[in-house]
Amino acid sequence: MAAAKKSPKDFLGGINPNAAIVAGWVVAVVAVLALYYFVFYEPLNEERSNEETRKTTLQQEFRTAEGNLRRYNTDVAELARARQRAQQLQTVLPNDPDIPGFMRGVNALSEASGLQLALIQPTEERVEQYYARIPVQLEVRGTYLALARFFHSVSQLPRVINMENIKLSDPREDPVSHEMRLKATVLATTFRGVTRAPGAPGARPAGAAPGGAR
After folding, report:
1. Which position among 20, 26, 94, 136 has the lowest Cβ density within 10 Å, counted as fewest Cβ atoms?
2. Three-class secondary structure of residue 126 per DSSP
3. Could you report the per-residue pLDDT of 19-30, keeping only the tens digit for each?
4. Alpha-carbon span 93 to 30, nearest angstrom
5. Are 133 and 60 members of one domain?
6. In whole angstroms, what is the distance from residue 110 CA to residue 198 CA?
7. Within 37-169, where are the H helices?
8. Domain carrying residue 160
9. Alpha-carbon distance 174 to 172, whole Å?
10. How far apart are CA 194 and CA 97, in angstroms?
11. Tally of structural domains, the chain
């Protein structure tokens, strides 16, 4: 008796051939997807994560750099203001008293105000905690108006000058102008900075200046 011819279904153990084909395609697609995932997607995803981490780090560094730049600009501006204040302080309270220059300035102001300067004589300076007083004895002659102009001109100087112990005497009428002229003695006190080693007793703090009316 001839053997019965076997169909493909018999070789597949009774599995439908179409189902086997579909299963094969599914396995193939899954294999391809798995290959794509492990070979392409996973490395790219890891690289993307690394790039995002680097981006976050760079953003933080950028913000830090911005903050440092703002602080630097603030420090530079503060340094410029401190230098300006130091220059102003040097004008108001110089370390070098420059008495000859001071005397020339007072003489020029007195002449410009219409006064006759009879005496200008520095006396012994008195050193105090933060500064030194340098008294200069003045004797001038002129009208009340000329004296007022002189005192006003001195008050406009950047350097601190106190006009003290003002005494008026010997009034006389000018025979030509008939104006009353008188003698005035004044103690003009200027100052200089006292420089001491930092931390030493009596060291002058930054920005310290003598008080008193100018």
Report:
1. 26
2. strand
3. 667 777 777 777
4. 89
5. no
6. 40
7. 42-92, 99-113, 144-155
8. 99-193
9. 6
10. 11
11. 2
pLDDT tens per residue across span 29-73: 777 777 777 777 777 777 778 888 888 888 888 888 888 888 878
CA distance between the termini of the chain: 143
Q: Do residues 56 and 105 share a domain?
A: no
More confident residue, 101 or 137: 137
- With b for 16 or more beta-carbon neighbours within 10 A and e for fewer, the 77-112 pattern comes to eeeeeeeeeeeebeebbbeebeeeebbebbeebbee
Query: Is 107 contained in some domain?
Result: yes
Q: Are 208 and 192 in contact (CB under 8 A)?
A: no
Q: How far apart are CA 170 and CA 174, in angstroms?
A: 12
Of the candidates 89, 132, 138, 134, which has an alpha carbon nearest to the alpha carbon of residue 109? 138
Burial (CB count within 10 angstroms: exposed 0-12, middle 13-18, buried 19+), residue 20: middle
The Cα 170–Cα 183 span in angstroms is: 6
